[in-house]
Model the fold of this input.
Amino acid sequence: MTVTLDVTWAVKWLTLSAQAMAEHRVELIELDRAIGDSDHGENMDRGFQAVLDKLAETPPETPGAALKLTAMALMSKVGGAAGPLYGTAFLRAATALGDAAYVDAPALAAALGAARDGIVARGKAESGDKTMVDAWTPAVEAAMAAAGDGDTLAVLIAAAEAAEAGAVATDPLVARKGRASYLGERSAGHRDPGAASSALILRAAAGAAA
Ligand code: ADP
Ligand code: MG
Done:
């Protein structure tokens, strides 16, 4: 079913993302405790609460404006490695969407691709390095493959499912980027926290359109 993705969808996406970060805060903290410094759940919850504050303060008029405001809030409030990475992702997606009032399936896939490219440009991680890229890259590939049918909801569901599978697939990997890489082989056997939060955010995008 093609759902019209407008600013109402974008605001709902961000609201559901904030809810997901609050609900999964402890789980993300535990994942980061195993291979990092335990702050990822805290960082993401704080960041998305700041997004909610900004949305209430200055309601955006387009999806692109909503994502730009999100980028600014996440960059200033999340901190750690994830803050600038998610900030860049949302900023690149906002730029890709421009001033458009509606996002169609190809524009959606392109925006997700721009977000992923921003994460890669900033963090220089490759697929298999056990980072959030391992959720985003399969999500973008699935979104691109689904976009041809023009069905926005199908694109969002494909992206969410691929991101979830990608996050699960980080479990056996040895981290080669970020704080978890300091653990070397001992990082294997744990899910990457940033891949897990990325999957939650992409699931929220689909949930907002359903
Ligand atoms: P920090 O590692 O500074 O404590 P967070 O705990 O908030 O920051 O975020 C950690 C997550 O950031 C990791 O799980 C990983 O997904 C992501 N990450 C770290 N470094 C990189 C990188 N170079 N490229 C992509 N993602 C990265
Ligand atoms: Mg951390």
